[in-house]
């Protein structure tokens, strides 16, 4: 079972992420943050070029064909994979237990992008966007997935 010192919480949404560690005596501290550059771009800036043209026989009119995917949604998925890659790159033994906290639509992407070792250390997921929640207010959101015996510091 993991002790509080080796638990890592990865908090992410489609644009920001942070790695949070438990620090004795039961406090949480952000140790690393990430931000997607693409999150601040307009959809038109995310496309490589303009939409393709569609030509209908019997007509001289041309119509732009909109992409079948939302460029921002694609960037959110790509960012989640980048966060998982950063997690996968951590040295073996740098954490013993892992909690993923992200909006429900991103949890499968994060989980699927984990390498075997981090995936084995996954002890729970929290399907909420906690990116903007300060470290000192995270405990109530995480308590349901924490291993027994790990509690917040009593103030």
UniProtKB/TrEMBL annotation:
It comes from Acidiphilium cryptum (strain JF-5). Residues 43-73 are annotated as: Disordered. Residues 63-73 have a biased composition (Basic and acidic residues). This is Host attachment protein. InterPro entries: Host_attachment_protein.
